[in-house]
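Many introductory courses stop at the sequence. We go one step further.
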Amino acid sequence: MGASIENSLHKLLFLLLLCVSYVSQGQFHHGLELGANMTNADFRVNDSAEPTSAIGFLLGYVAERDFSDNVYMRFGVSYNRRTFNAISRRGINTSEEKWGIDVIEIPINLGYYINWNNRNLQFFVDAGINLGYNGRAFVENDEETIRLDIGGDGEINRITIGANAGAGLLLKRRIKFRLNYYTSLTNIVNAEENTWKNKTFGLSINYFFKEKLDY
């Protein structure tokens, strides 16, 4: 069953990349994104549960194409580390663990600008879908760090899908301060009896190499 889900997700990834290739024939404004995130999760894996939030980070590339003065498309490729703490219970013994995953994500969003000041200050909102390629998953405890197998018949699915919504300010048509919420739509673990779905709040700065012009 895991292989069937992964094949379906690969097909969806291919179709969405074709869509991006089509719409990207217009002018994009390119930039970099750097930020921090705080992740919690819908989580129960074997004897581990009771998740609490922990801090991670993101680093990536971002591009936007304006369709009008108000409507834009946002596209990116980012490296994300999402971590959270959990409690492992084995008999009468309990221990604290840190669960984490390193994922390369492709967010594709549709957004809207509210022109408070047509040049210096704009409020924006956007929302869309995230395609994730899981590169590393791990569990840390007081004694060791355990690497989890990814893909195929491994413990973690290679491809996952999520949704996100963001809001913030664009300053001087070049710098964005962005607050983002992300939630997993697919199960990260490759087992129906277990659940791992991240829920992440993020704060990032986007810097565009060239000032965004009026449409």
